[in-house]
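Hello Y.,

Per our agreement to keep a running log of every chain we model this quarter, I'm adding this entry. I've kept the format consistent with earlier entries: sequence first, then predicted structure.
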Amino acid sequence: MSVAIRLARGGAKKRPYYRIVVANSRSPRDGAFIEKIGSYNPLLAKDDANRVVIDADRAKHWLSVGAQPTDRVARFLDAAGVKERAAKSNLKKGEPGDKAKERAEERAAKVAAAEEAAKAPVEEPVVEEAPAVEAASEEAPAAEAGEEKTEA
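Predicted structure for the entry above:
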């Protein structure tokens, strides 16, 4: 039989209250337990002394006979100084999922394509007016020459 130190939920709907119990690991969460060794009231302020109450002597006893605490209870036991708990860090906690990464890559590709399209020089269509401009410029010197002759 494996023994666990865990939380058993009590209280009303939307008003949780937990007992810290020692129970057979196969029994239901709120079912039969061997011994109640404390309580946890999440509705109280974090600095309130009655938020987590643990009987340290009984917790040490159950840990010495092989009871395994759950993660949450292990935090409480560490805070009470009963059992040391190694700090865990979830390095992938803030990392987006696979689909979010794919969507970001697609957006980046679209933005890059739009920037390249904006940077590419726009080829202006060849206008047929160029010869007409040359003809006008050839006539202008002839007209100027005619004016000079009339002045003299």
